[in-house]
Amino acid sequence: MTQLQEQRRPARQWRKTGLAALLAIWLGGLVFYATLVIPTGADVLGGHTAFGFITRRVTVKLNLLGSGVLVVLLIERWQRGARSGRRGLAIAWWIMATCQTALFFLHPWLDQLLDAEARRILDPDAFYRRHQIYLWTAMVQWLAGAFTFHRVVTRG
C-alpha cells in the first residue's frame, strides 16, 4: 500500500461506516416499524385500520428518509467513480430508486381510498389490493437495500 493510500484509508473507513449507518437507520427503521410498532399500535388502538392512519403519516417520513439515503449513495458512487465489480451496487441502487419513486406515487393512490377525517377506508377490498402492491414494492426495495448494506459493510 502506498503512503497516499495509507493516508486515505481512515477517511474511506469513516465514509464506509457512515454509509452503513445511514442504510441501517433506514432499513432497520422499516423493519422495526413493521415488526414491532405496527402490531403494538394496532393492539393498543384496537385494530390495524385505526393504526393505519398513523402509519399513513409515518410512511411519508420513511420515504423521505429513503430518498435522502439514495441521494447520499448516488453521491458516493459518483465520487468514487464507476469501477468494475461495482455493477451489483449500481443495479441495487436503480432498484431502490425505482421502488422509491413508485412508493411516492403509490401513497396518494392509497390515500384516494381513505377518509382521513372519519378515519375509515372507503373501499376495503380495493385498498387491500393497492396496499399489497405498496408492501411488495417496499419489500423489493428493502431487499436491494439489504444487498447494498452487505456490500458496503463487507467490501466498502
Q: What are the key terms here?
A:
4 helices; 85% helix; 156 residues; mainly alpha; 3% strand; elongated; two-stranded antiparallel sheet
Fold and architecture overview:
This protein has 156 residues and is an all-alpha fold. It is 85% helix and 3% strand. It contains 4 helices and 2 strands; from the N terminus they run H-H-H-E-E-H. It has helices at 3-45, 48-80, 87-111, 124-154; strands at 114-115, 120-121. Strands 1-2 form a two-stranded antiparallel ribbon. A hairpin with a 4-residue loop joins strand 1 and strand 2. The longest helix is centred in the first third of the chain and has 43 residues, at 3-45.
In short:
The chain has helices at 3-45, 48-80, 87-111, 124-154; strands at residues 114-115, 120-121.
What's the layout of helices and strands?
Layout: H1 3-45, H2 48-80, H3 87-111, E1 114-115, E2 120-121, H4 124-154
Antiparallel strand pairs: 1-2
Helix pairs in contact: 1-2, 1-4, 2-3, 3-4
